[in-house]
Amino acid sequence: MSIRVLVVDDQMMVREGFSVLLNAMPDIEVVGEAVNGREAIAQVAALRPDVVLMDIRMPEMNGIDATREIVAADGDAKVLVLTTFDLDEYVYQALRAGASGFLLKDASARQLADGVRVVAAGEALLAPTVTRRLITEFAKRVESPRAAALAQVGDLTERETEVLVLIAQGLSNAEIAAHLVVAESTIKTHVSRVLVKLGLRDRTQAAVFAYEARLVTPR
């Protein structure tokens, strides 16, 4: 079945451009468009897309607030944020709000389609170096580790904490398994437990958490 996508952007040319690119893919279908965050929330409820391509700066309701509401209403909702500037504090806030990753608006058709596929498959779009750089940059601005974060870290086992650090460094399950010399299925179990214990929805939020708790030191 095709991956169903909702495109959210206040600029008509951007919406149409992304729609054309994605509809050209045999496994992706754009099922709707929205011009602001408020309309996006309504469209998500009506259309139940697999992935929401979400602009950040929009009138009436921005992409951060819309992402927060969409994720709160449906824990399985997958939002891929669009931005024109990679080191964008608004993108960082969107990742904290529950977005699964982000793409630059000048991404190629292949990058756009691959990003949609990755997020639709339930993975966080964390692999690109720029995403880790974004998290690192804005985590520096957290003056001290959040007390709540530190308390939650205490609930993790030593191995779970180790896995969390490696997630924040951008390693995949297979890479973590190789690094720790264990089965990949074991790592999947550890990742699931980390997310449940910390109340996080995916690897992107786990990475943000690790930096803000100072388990990984921003450079």
TrEMBL record:
Keywords: DNA-binding, Phosphoprotein, Transcription, Transcription regulation. Residues 149-214 form the HTH luxR-type domain. The modification 4-aspartylphosphate is found at D55. GO terms for biological process: phosphorelay signal transduction system; regulation of DNA-templated transcription. The keyword DNA-binding applies. One of its GO terms (molecular function) is DNA binding. Residues 4-120 form the Response regulatory domain. InterPro entries: CheY-like_superfamily, NreC/VraR/RcsB-like_REC, Sig_transdc_resp-reg_C-effctor, Sig_transdc_resp-reg_receiver, Tscrpt_reg_LuxR_C, WalR-like. Pfam families: GerE (PF00196), Response_reg (PF00072). SMART domains: HTH_LUXR, REC. It comes from the Bacteria. This is DNA-binding response regulator. It comes from Streptomyces thermolilacinus SPC6.
